[in-house]
Amino acid sequence: MTADHLSTDVVVVGAGPVGLMLAGELAHGGVDVVLVEKRHAPNTESRASTLHARTMEILDSRALLPEFGDPPNEPRGHFGGLPLDLTLPTSHPGQWKVPQTRTEVILQEWALSLGATLKCKHEVTALKDTGHGVEAEATGPDGTLLRLHCRYLIACDGEDSTVRRLTGAPFPGQDAARELLRADVAGIDIPARRFERLETGLAIAARRPDGVTRVMVHEFGSTAQHRPGGDVSFEEITAVWKRVTGEDISSGTPLWANAFGDASRQLTHYRHGRILFAGDAAHQQMPIGGQALNLGVQDAFNLGWKLALVVRGKAPHTLLDTYHSERHETGRRVLANIRAQALMLLGPPQVGPLRALLGELTALDDVRRHLAGMISGLDVRYDVGGPAHPLLGARLPCTELRLRERTVTTARLVRSGGGVLLDLTARGSGPPAPAEGWADRVTEVAAQPTPGSALYGTERVLVRPDGHVAWAGSGTDGLTEALTRWFGPPR
């Protein structure tokens, strides 16, 4: 068999939202990247439809939000089916309803416009980490073979990851015990149901502006079935729906149907040498409240700039270890809250007292803010080391800054894809900041914060390309160390 050969800096396996986000970030950072996708055509199944506040901030920091138009915004989400106000200090509070198909189209156009290459109809069948790079093989249309040579390979190929199987990466956790059946159905007219726990099961029904109704149903006491690819017949869904609600939806036309369980698994390590994992390839969870897609996109945003610096020779490969340490802990917390929510949603009637108690607790603002921060991704704080400061490790607060004759948002500061050293001393006349050796990776910006903002009173802030604060203080103590840790040695 003849084979085509392709060499590149990075191969990303999987062209869903996570893979596309990562490919765009890498291309934005000056890296040659090839996306390998086994599908023959773009996805037409809109599995995930919720973008949370932190993801919206990320899209804003890459100037992508205008492409999304004016999607519906809902300030109220839920925790385990209990209503929860998600409003927190951010430029995009609440949750935003965008079909996954639309998200993928926008991210694909962005990645390709920056120079990424997309190879559809190619399925990875073999790979090897040589220590100096990764060699992979992918079967293309009509059985053609594509041999790929790259410096790093990133698996973004979902919960049934082929790359994970080929590498044998440990993926401990729990198999699904319960499941939800769901379908998008045209031609039915049923009452809206928001996480309605009835006598025999849970029912959810939401009608979209185009008249299609998404239904989801779980029958109490039922167990998860082995369903390769989540396949489920519409007949099974209509039967369960009728037993739980008494309504007959069999006359409708199913546009899409699938089942998903409450399996909970996480890779022991997100990095295996020159092979890394992101999104559902790294962690499997029940997609409750839209957290799965958002968690994966945020994985990609954390990894992209780090890998770009390493590939370009600006930072040592050990920087990639911080991707695992930061995102594995974030993923662990998200999986834990999703397991709790799954029990609240799908558990038997005996969970009723627990639901009632939590309903009382969410009326307390501290509890509400804690849960809302967890679900939205706004509460993520990384252990970045350095002198203690209230901003350290957290995302840069959303606020406006005065730069000479214009006002900009903090999201705009990292649009270049590099780091930013903010001088907030009003006149930009404080002690010289030792950042000259990193001028090719970090931009120094003199700005005035708004009085009363979270930045007011701090003299300098070092911001990573993903918007998280790597160092903050009034002098320069620890700044050189922070610059070296996150951006490599000076020129």
UniProtKB/TrEMBL annotation:
Domain FAD-binding: 8-336
Domain of life: Bacteria
Record's keyword terms, sorted: FAD, Flavoprotein
Keyword field contains Chloroplast: no
Short name of any one Pfam family annotated for the protein: Rng_hyd_C
Molecular functions per Gene Ontology: FAD binding; oxidoreductase activity, acting on paired donors, with incorporation or reduction of molecular oxygen, NAD(P)H as one donor, and incorporation of one atom of oxygen
Cofactor(s) the record lists: FAD
Keyword presence, ATP-binding: no
PANTHER family, sorted: BINDING MONOOXYGENASE, PUTATIVE (JCVI)-RELATED, TRK SYSTEM POTASSIUM UPTAKE PROTEIN
Protein's name according to its UniProt entry: Putative oxygenase
Organism of provenance: Streptomyces ambofaciens (strain ATCC 23877 / 3486 / DSM 40053 / JCM 4204 / NBRC 12836 / NRRL B-2516)
Encoding gene, per UniProt annotation: alpF
